[in-house]
Queue: 2 jobs
Job 1
Amino acid sequence: MKLIYAIVNNDDSREVQSGITRAGFQATKLASTGGFLMAGNTTFLICSENDRVDEIIGIIKQHSHKRKEVVTSAAESYGGLGYSSGVPVEVFVGGATIFVTDIERFEKV
């Protein structure tokens, strides 16, 4: 058995959850925050037989998309006089980070 941790951008979480459910898997969904943007994410915990891990990862890939987003970066200037201006920076957000670990025992009670 494997435990899959999938950290997905909030914008993609609904589609990922629907895809996982349609394929007959169950997942625990947790709100999470992270990355340098401190953006909202959703972390899915999915237990699976070893031979179905690639299927789950394929579903997550299908519904998690990287995209460009413009964010404002505070850049201190003018010799540290306390003046800061927002500098627009283009970054990639989205996609998914996936961890797969072995589990010794799984019970649903």
Job 2
Amino acid sequence: MAAIDHIRAFYREQAGLYQRLVARQDYQRQLIAALTEISPLAGRVVEFGAGTGNLTGALLERAARVYAFDIERAMLVEARAQLRDKDLRNWSLVAADNGRMPLPANCADLAIEGWSFNHALDWQPNAWRELVDQLLAEMQRVLKPGGVAILIEDLGIGRTQPQAPSADVARLYNHWQERHGFQHRWIRSDYQFASPSEASELAGMFFGATLAEQCLRSPQITLPECTGIWWKRF
């Protein structure tokens, strides 16, 4: 099975577990605070790779409307369950590929992705630059003139200081900054779990046995994480 097929199967089969994990992420709400410093998050928002809707739910509180998309329908089923609990109706969830949004041009004030575009390295390991350029061009297409694109990605699970998880990922991030002119900052987006056993279960499922064992041995129920934010106004 190709790497991207394995990843898609995982998200398709483990959407509920994935939601349990991301619900524990950024318990101090550093991400939304940082995003509002970059953009007011108002107006019409297009979210690429929305997953189970964790970021979507936070955007709804500020945006006029959020159009959220993900390629995996199982993730969207979980997202609908989460979003229906909110007393808000300014959202839509549709299955779509990140490179082909079913939207007209110049329709959004903000285009945003979280932990999704980095999969370009899995989808096209030998041509990821071309794919990334296509994804960014699609962001620009849906944005109104003066709109903002925001990219949110991993800078280290279990770390208190930022570091790209691999040399390939570091090259991806440099491509955004050097080729496309994105600005960059980072934040802490630590996880807080209900117990060491929950931390071990979820960390093991998504981040591997080493972090799972670390969580089980520790009396702490927090797992540090660094997250990078890249943005550009078009």
